[in-house]
Design goal:
This protein is α+β, with helices and mostly antiparallel strands. It is 19% helix and 31% strand. It contains 13 helices and 51 strands. Strands 5-6-7-8-9-10-17-16-12 form a nine-stranded antiparallel β-sheet, with no helix packed on it. Strands 31-30-28-25-21-20-19-33-32 form a nine-stranded parallel β-sheet. An eight-stranded antiparallel β-sheet has the order 1-2-3-4-18-15-14-11. The chain is globular. The structure holds ligand MIG. The site of ligand MIG has 11 residues, from loops.
């Protein structure tokens, strides 16, 4: 891929012989005779940063992706010089840097096995058109290597054999294999010989990844400007790679309020007020749980952000309050384009303060979006973000809006070929002025960040909620996201499944699709099957464009309504389980959904699986993604799995048929799991939780489970007011022992657990709780194998 052939043919250039080496604390610096400098920074024992310059000078070291909270520090560092190379050793890795050409090879320090090795290594072309370099890297693909990640790419899990581009793009009705689409997450995890490592190429210019497409055994990545600047992250477990990447680029700054994990209803657009109210009422009448309702662009006055159409919504504050009294949180859309209108406050303020993006030669960046001709705030300027965040005061503090939805923030521009700003638009980029070539991929992220800042400020002491369409690595710190304008087809149901898994594997777990499809209209069967998948996604929202009919749970007849209700109810029951998974994600960077390969990379059957995934830690789900299905074949990872509906036990490591009529779907629970459940509520907080149900699935052997709870909103949990229950279960032929270890200062409102025992291979004779013996009769509730116990027990022996 050589581009600069037109003027003076230089083609690819390479570093030459290393002429000097220097160590400055954790930065190792290598300079070549032709002026290339490589900095290797030891971030952690298993994380190395590689950064190259071809000019002898590095740019100001600034990244929107890397969080200031990233962990740093290593246990061991040793650098030895040999005749032909330098050898860098940490407690996890050995890295060879070759003197002849600066190429490197990385080995596992434990067993000296080769993990990753440069092919051409770093090389570059001069960019005649824009100045600077097109920076490139190529690596040898090891035998049997597979690749995963890269954000929202709508392709099969394993990326091998394909080439991708990262350039955030508005992609209405994209399809399988469309590339690029809305997000740019230049991070992948590679797996070979059962060991995994990751590469995060932190370069915001248009970038490319080629996984053995151009050449069979070569993986390469390059960008149209900026520095070759990447992080090498070693596992060997994939989950460690993803957790380390998420540590670098950030976990969500706070847990989401529990209601945000409920069901959301959206459409383009619900208006006027009476329509919004009708929809809300119907949910309550039909007893379909729902926590949030969305207002799309038509709530505004001529699509001016931060205004209301007074004809449709004469008294938004009252409406929002009435909705709230019925348990509905109101979420409104806010786009980046600000209508050119000299009578419009927001426009005037931004103009006076010089907050709009400008073209290289001075004029404002003018583009058409919904409001007509617009200017666009430069969200890469911290002063602009502060101003923007303050604009939410009225919406949030005054009117009571609970969440904001950022759309069109790629940024999308209509009626222009590139669908976005031209390259020459200028950005502040945190005081590192640059063109849109560099700022494009992070523009939407910075808008979502500014929105988050506002929501956080004005929602306090409650937690903020933001949803964004565009994203770059690190955006997960501020906001949730959806997968953009999909289509109501069966293929798109599979794509939604792939995208949600892929986003989770790319450090961004708070993700969901437009359930039912945005464009076109699903039939009832497709809608029901999509809801079944959607309730197992971290973000769960139906959305559709208005042009193709209704897309509410009741729009497809009573049969479908009943199926949809059943699955949304299931989601509400599983809220404490999902919240615990979210807590693990926010705490440790463990993805909420785990593709089978991430769950068990040691089983090579998982390497090419697409449909099955693990929801949280213990639940295996697999959507039905074909019409007229009575069930499907699916792969069960190693271990024993209980059928959610029938309790039938299945042994993993094989592919099997599973029955699943339209009112069902394949869902399984890992043997030994303890799954916490709340009662069905119409919205979060409708009921005081009087008892926590825990489904206990017998296993011969040991299994650990956790339940995390707190006040479900607010920040007290940060001060220690949370409750973490660590359960360890041990099953024997005729005995089941459960230990509980509790930490945290939060006191749950309930006093008891209802333990439902599944798959017990023996008849209960007696039960001992904290050393006191009970006969089973004294404890038995309604039905067999159900025990009510005090929530603070330490040990239960069931014999
Ligand atoms: O040009 O606001 O992806 O969710 O409903 C379309 C209208 C603009 C695109 C979003 C979609 C939203 C729609 N928007």
């Amino acid at each position: 891929m050589i581009i600069n052939t037109e003027l003076e043919y230089k083609g690819n250039m390479f570093p030459s012989q290393v002429s000097s080496y220097q160590k400055d604390l954790d930065v190792l610096s290598f300079t070549t005779e032709n002026g290339v400098i490589l900095h290797i920074t030891i971030i952690r024992d298993s994380v190395l940063r590689f950064r190259y310059t071809t000019t002898g000078i590095f740019e100001n070291d600034f990244s929107y992706a890397i969080t200031k909270y990233a962990s740093r520090g290593y246990n061991h560092l040793e650098v030895a010089e040999e005749e032909d190379k330098y050898v860098i050793t940490t407690s996890k890795l050995i890295c060879h840097v070759f003197k002849a050409d600066l190429r490197n090879a990385i080995y596992d320090a434990k067993d000296n096995s080769l993990i990753c090795q440069d092919e051409l290594g770093f090389h570059w072309e001069e960019s005649y058109e824009f100045g600077g370099d097109i920076v490139k890297m190529s690596k040898v693909a090891q035998e049997g290597e597979s690749y995963y990640g890269l954000g929202d790419k709508p392709v099969d899990n394993n990326l091998k054999g394909k080439r991708f581009e990262n350039w955030v793009t508005d992609s209405y009705a994209y399809g399988k294999d469309t590339d690029p689409i809305y997000k740019a997450i230049p991070f992948y995890t590679a797996l070979h010989h059962k060991k995994a490592y990751g590469i995060f190429f932190d370069n915001t210019f248009r970038s490319f990844f080629d996984f053995c497409q151009e050449r069979r055994n070569i993986t390469s990545f390059w960008a149209q400007g900026g520095e070759m600047n990447y992080y090498f992250i070693y596992g060997p477990e994939m989950s460690e790679v993803v957790a380390n990447y998420t540590d670098l680029t950030g976990k969500p700054h706070e847990l989401p309020a529990l209601w945000t994990l409920g069901y959301h209803q959206c459409k383009w657009s619900y208006y006027p007020e009476s329509k919004v109210k009708d929809i809300a009422k119907k949910f309550r009448d039909l007893k379909i749980p729902c926590d949030a309702i969305y207002l799309d662009i038509d709530y505004m006055e001529g699509f001016r952000c931060f205004t209301w159409n007074k004809e449709y919504f004469p008294d938004p504050k009252r409406m929002v309050k009435e909705l709230r009294e019925d348990g509905f949180k109101t979420i409104v859309i806010i786009d980046p384009g600000i209508k050119i209108d000299h009578d419009y406050e927001v426009f005037k303020e931004a103009l006076e303060n010089d907050y709009f993006c400008k073209r290289a030669d001075g004029p404002y960046m003018k583009g058409k979006v919904w409001p007509g001709e617009c200017y666009f705030p430069d969200f890469t300027n911290p002063e602009v973000r502060d101003w923007w965040s303050d604009l939410f005061r009225e919406l949030v503090e005054e009117i009571g809006v609970k969440g904001v939805w950022n759309d069109m923030n790629e940024p999308a521009v209509m009626e222009v070929p590139g669908k976005t700003f031209p390259n020459d638009v200028r950005h502040d980029y945190e005081g590192n002025p640059c063109s849109h070539r560099k700022a494009h991929n992070i523009y939407g992220m910075q808008m979502a960040r500014a929105t988050y800042q506002g929501l956080k400020k004005f929602s306090y002491p409650k937690r903020p909620f933001v949803i964004t369409r565009a994203a770059y690595s690190g955006t997960q710190r501020y906001t949730s996201s959806w997968t953009g304008d999909n289509v109501a087809t069966w293929e798109h149901l599979s794509i939604a499944n792939l995208q949600a898994q892929r986003m989770c594997m790319s450090g961004f777990s708070f993700i969901g699709s437009d359930i039912g499809g945005f464009a076109e209209q699903p039939n009832g069967e497709l809608y029901a099957r999509w809801i079944q998948l959607g309730v197992f996604h971290p973000f769960c929202r139906t959305h559709s464009s208005g042009d193709h009919g209704d897309q509410e749970p009741w729009a497809f007849g009573e049969n479908i309504t009943n199926v949809v209700r059943k699955f949304i109810e299931l989601r509400y029951q599983l809220l404490p389980y999902l919240y615990t998974a979210f807590w693990r994600y926010a705490e440790e960077g463990i993805p909420i959904l785990k593709s089978l390969v991430l769950y068990d990379q040691h089983d090579s059957h998982t390497h090419y699986r697409n449909d099955e995934f693990i929801f949280g830690e213990k639940i295996l789900a697999c959507p039905i993604n074909e019409p007229n299905a009575k069930g499907r074949r699916m792969y069960f990872p190693m271990g024993d799995w209980y059928n959610w509906w029938t309790d039938e036990l299945v042994t993993g490591g094989q592919e099997l048929w599973v029955d699943a009529d339209l009112d069902s779907m394949p869902v399984f629970v890992k043997a030994g799991a303890m799954i916490p459940k709340y009662p069905v509520q119409q919205y979060v907080g409708e009921k005081e939780i009087e008892e926590l149900t825990i489904d206990v699935y017998f296993k011969e052997g040991k299994e650990a489970s956790q339940v995390y709870e707190d006040a479900h909103d607010g920040y007290d949990y940060i001060k220690g007011r949370y409750s973490l229950r660590n359960f360890s279960l041990q099953g024997k032929k005729n005995e089941l022992i459960i230990h509980q270890h509790k930490s945290g200062k939060y006191t749950a409102p309930y006093e008891t657990f209802k333990l439902k025992l599944h798959g017990l291979p023996f008849k209960i004779k007696k039960v001992q709780i904290d050393k006191v013996e009970y006969s089973f009769k004294d404890l038995k509730l309604n039905g067999d194998n159900v025990l009510e116990v005090h929530k603070d027990f330490n040990d239960i022996h069931i014999m």
